[in-house]
Amino acid sequence: MKIANKYFDAKRAEEKATTGQEWVALAERELLFQHAGVAVARGNSAILDTLRHTWSSGGTKRRQAKDPNKLADDFLAGLNLFSAPDVAQVVRSQGF
């Protein structure tokens, strides 16, 4: 939140100074948090899927659990494409 708030506060101030409005920055911030929510849900699903395989007696159809690192990479790639490449770069540098 600290990283995103700092980034989007600056972006909103810049937009307000140039256009007099803040709607684009607010929409981009909302999109970022929507993407983050989906990434968290996918991660939770991957964890639960892995636990299900551990607890399963073998009678159910098994799907391969998703690699958590791939989920994180997909999320960061989404940041680069859709909303905030600067935030993605900072998140990567922090090791998240």
TL;DR of this structure?
With 96 residues, this protein is an all-alpha fold. It contains four helices and no strands.
Secondary structure topology:
Blueprint (H helix, E strand, L loop, with lengths): L1 H18 L3 H33 L12 H16 L1 H10 L2
Helix pairs in contact: 1-2, 2-3, 3-4
List keywords for this structure.
96 residues; mainly alpha
The number of distinct β-strands equals 0
Radius of gyration: 18 Å
Order of helices and strands: HHHH
Strand content: under 5%
How would you describe the shape? elongated
State the helicity in percent bands. Answer: over 70%
Number of domains: 1
The major pleated sheet works out as:
none
Total of helices: 4
Low-confidence stretches: none
Q: Please tell me the overall pLDDT.
A: 75
Distance between the termini: 13 Å
- Structural category is mainly alpha
Oligomer: single chain
Structure in words:
This protein is an all-alpha fold and 96 residues long. It has one domain. The chain has 4 helices and no strands. It has helices spanning 2-19, 23-55, 68-83, 85-94. Helix 2 packs antiparallel against helix 3 (68-83). The radius of gyration is 18 Å and the shape is elongated. The mean pLDDT is 75.
